[in-house]
Amino acid sequence: MTKKTSNPIQSLKIPRVIIISCKICAFISTKLVTKYTARLFTTPIKHKVPKRELEMDRKSAQHTIHIPKINKDIVVYEFGKSDRKILLVHGWSGRGTQLFKIADELLHNGYSTVSFDAPAHGKSKGKTTIMSDFIESILEIDKIYGPFKIAIGHSLGGMSVLNAIKDGLKVDKAVVIGSGDIVQDILDDFISKLELKPKISELLREHFENKYKTVMDNYSAYKAAAKIKVPVLVIHDNDDPEVAVKAGIHIHKHLVNGSLFVTDKLGHRKILGNQIVIKKIVDFIKSN
Question: Of all residues in the chain, what percent carry a pLDDT higher than 70?
Answer without folding.
Answer: 96
